[in-house]
Design a protein that fits this description.
CATH topology of the largest domain in chain B: Aldehyde Oxidoreductase, domain 4
Distance between the termini of chain B: 53 Å
Number of domains of chain B: 3
CATH architecture of the largest domain in chain A: 2-Layer Sandwich
Largest interface: A-B, 82 and 80 residues
Number of helices of chain A: 19
Largest sheet of chain A: 5 strands, mixed
Strand content of chain B: 15-25%
Shape of chain B: globular
Structural class of chain B: alpha+beta
CATH architecture of the largest domain in chain B: 2-Layer Sandwich
Structural class of chain A: alpha+beta
Largest sheet of chain B: 8 strands, mixed
Number of helices of chain B: 19
Oligomer: heterodimer
Radius of gyration of chain A: 23 Å
Amino acid sequence: MENRSEPLRFQLNAESLETCGATGRLLLDYLRRDRRAVGTKEGCREGDCGACTVLLGELLHEGSTSWVRYRAVPACMLLLGHVRGRHVVTIEGLNTGETLSPPQRAVVERGATQCGFCTPGFVVSFTGYLLNATGYDPETAIDAIAGNLCRCTGYTALVQAARDLEPEFTKLPPPGPERTAALVQAGALPEYFTRAAAELERMQVNATQAEGLLLAGGTDLIVQQTSALDSTSPEFLLPNEEDRVPRVVDGRLVLPGACTFEDLRRSPDFLALWPGAHAALGRFASILIRERASVAGNIANASPIADGTAIFLALDAELELASPADSRRIPLKEFFLGYKQIALKEGERIAGLRMADAAHLGRLVNFEKLSKRTQLDIATVNSALSIAVVDGRIEALTLSAGGVAPIPLLLAETANFLVGRPLTAATLIEAAAVLDGEIAPISDVRGSEEYKRLAMRQLFWAHFLELFPEAIAAETFLEAIS
Amino acid sequence: MSLDAARHTRGESVFTDDLAEPADLLHGALFTSPVARGFLHGLDTRAASEAPGVVRIFTAEDVPGENQIGAIVPDEPLFAENRVHHVGQPIALVVATSPEAARHARGLVVANIEEQDPILCPREAERRGELIVPSRSLALGSDEAFQSAFAESHTQVEGSSQSGGQEHLYIETQSAMALPLEGGRMRIYAGTQGPTAVQRVAARVLGLAMSEIEVEVQRLGGAFGGKEDQATPWATFAALAARSLSRAVKVNLQRDEDMVCTGKRHPYEADWRLGLDAEGHILAWKLTLYQNAGAAADLSPAILERSLFHACGSYRVPTARITAHSCRTNLTPFTAFRGFGGPQGMFAMESAMARAAEVMGIEREVLQERNLLEQGDVLPYGMQLKECSARRCFSEAAERFDLAGARARVRAHNSKDPLSKRGLAVMPISFGISFTNKRMNQAGALVHAYSDGSVRVATGAVEMGQGVNSKLQYIAAQTLRCDPERVSIAATSTTLVANTSPTAASSGADLNGKAVQIACKSLRERLDGVSMELAWDDVVSLALESRVSLTAGAHYKTPGLEYDAQAEWGTPFAYHVQGSAISEATVDCLRGTYSIDSVRIVHDGGRSLAPLIDTGQVIGALAQGIGWLTLEELRYDERGRLMTDKLATYKAPDIHSMAREVEVVFLEDSSNPHAVLGSKGIGEPPLMYGLAAFFSIREAARAFRSDRGQDSPDLLEAPLTPERLLRFLYCS
């Protein structure tokens, strides 16, 4: 299983490459050491700084045309096997002759680069935004570079650079071959981008079977196991974006296991189910990680503070588990057996998630999260709620809590207490006491036990203050807790 | 704009780990102590030496010269011997054919260590007499005057405050590559702010003359003080192995290694008492500082000194007793970080001022304004302020940014929403410029004009993003009267300019710029002797023809510096940098989270050599100051192990944590007779504007409690994390 017979083909910048090395090798190491593409910097090897950001392009077919869709992702979160049949673009591949591209120019003019170490990553993220944005909006452009850390500038100049680019890119065709061509025309991309689709077409990629580890995005595993993976060839799940998007089937919303959190955030069906999802999911990791992290991985990892899992629990999701021979469905809440223990049998994988679609959910949804840094951080505690209130009475409710138990917790007792009761401060005071008895947080690097208990009480109230401001006002809350 | 900017955006700028590698390059990985304190009884490297790719394993026994890297105090071995004093202390260097092989084998080294209970708390260290150097005290006013000032005080506040450590988080980790040259000489490419320090220590460890070692630095991917002395061991390890194996060796730390093994900003604790008269004028100030120095001196004594010098903030203090202890604990030695002890001293003073304002029932900024330093004031270390723009900056900020209006808006907001509170804080700064070690205030420059009219400038300054090369280019072109494009700056090398000070203390452009100016002036005078009329290229060419030297060297030393450390009296600084910031913050009192809404600054930057660069320095320093006090938290377990050892657990500001609105205005018509072309040092002072953010959040949080009729306990522990804040909001 070490070296596959079939060589790995992909495109790196303007070049088509073939390698027979181990597919478990970190793309970052491959780029810097084997290819000497040293413009891609190593800052953390855990997807937290964005210094190694590259564009990853995958071939999409729309009718008779095919084109390459690019996403900005960290090269330290990719193994070579992830780029099979894809187009990897490093900073070197974005340079357009002697003249600077518009993002490069904006960064230079604003003094948005000081030491320069993080700068290539910012330029790649900016360029990824130009390729993907539905229309140029400075605020979303800033979100697109939010996964990149800069320790020198204090970001103000980068924000200004993002604003400066607006007039130049207000009128772009929608993402697709014409967008790519327009960006080549504008000097934002080198000319070879127009040929990338044809190059990838030529590389026929066949899904091959391999023994061993099954990898989707790998955003957690790669951080933990880089050196162990380095010389191996795990099996890669590489569905294209078109096969990763959530779909409505018979009144159920079905998320493929490989659906990434950015796929989910772009999904009109998911946003219909929960209109607050776009903003809430924007606080999961960074955009660079959300483009890689899969919903199945978030669940399989069984982290007690997984944001995605907290949401899916509150949505009463069901898991579809598949093995070569069989498939079965179990409620998500039954999947977590203990700390990092899951009900996955040998040979099984999480094929997908199912939940009520927007037409059938009939509940309001809210998600709350506390972390040390508001954005781009792992939760200290989190909580999700789905609730139906009819005539002032709680008719249905599912409540989850993360960071307060060894597993992502479904607060069944609290929910039992609440269902059927009137939505009043008196009810919530009692329910908060039930909740406090149902959680068992421990002190760790993210926070003390005392803090987590207090925080969970606050988040519990926050759900209701957010969703029912008329029934539960700020004053009501403050009176209730004093 | 920066000389390197375009290259940076194209990914073409070369950092140490990007240098072309020799084909037979070897890689080193450090085996470091897993325990904070103990006796090292033995080391088993058998399995590691047999691991694939391993070439050799080095320990203390393999040091040909002295196993010692301490710069101020010789108390830090390169390799631990007999004892270990902190987690992450290097014990062995594994050299192998690839970094993976070296790291794999490093994991097979076994140390036999008898663990002892570590000392982690600076106060405990002080009680046990574990001091790095003898404690130091400043005294202003006689004992009698000091006592009676307290006795006559209308208001006295007494309390404690503490500020945490801070990881530098330069995005480029520590990195060095050593190349053996003929005759046993050595070239070291090191990611260091102090190439001379690397040269000196490597020579000492290798038993070579300094002249046999060349150290070269192209640029650093961020440093902030973290590559001043802390870059030295990695370069020395590479040199040691390269010398012994006669092959090139690279030592490049991964992020987690860097976070565990390298020093950070010092945590400080402070006990204080402040006495004021009925109008709020400061009468007396008593302060004791406990510096957590970690396990070895590193730069701690110098940092301690700067804390003393800045412990009165920007205020006129007539009588004072300020004592500082440098406490030895079993943590990785703490080190230089932008501000160099100054911010910790100022934080103690601002904490006391905040308390005093609360007790007196007046706005904090009223009290601050009343006590601002003035020209002619004598500071507690004896220096008289020759120039002082503290009041001008404060008034200009108050007017330009409508402080009164902002105050009124905060009050109006706070009367509306019980769960959303705003706070406002002003932060005046006054920061001394110069190395407090007098001998370090000198610099050299070497300038060559070539026959085609191009010019190469070499100094000891290291480019790390602060734009010093752009400033040197400007100074050279200005002085030579040539097109700036003809002037390029050489990579910093100990061979071109010797015996240099590290690029630090906000003095890189001051010192090296002056040396460049002097060199260029003498070259220009020679050229003027050849012709006053000819164009640049022609005069250079004619000078060569006329056998006039086109090379000039120069040396500069800062005049007027004199400090008597016994008497604790004198003039340690060439000048001070002043300014004022106004910060507004909003606290979500349901969730205990906050956002910095705005920070607006009037800064006295003298006559800026490069306004875009200086604006970037102000904002970048501000962001680090905000991070230090509101977000970034070092956490250790009870065994002294760093728990926040990766970016997943240590959080520095991202684009969304920065203040939403930032405005920087440079004080008009300012100049500075003490630095090159009227400019002022810019690197460190603006970091202390971050204190405004801390105190604005604190004020908002207190508004929530006072709304509810609750007394507030002190909230003077930084960083003010969401945990500290939420627990403060709801504590009984």
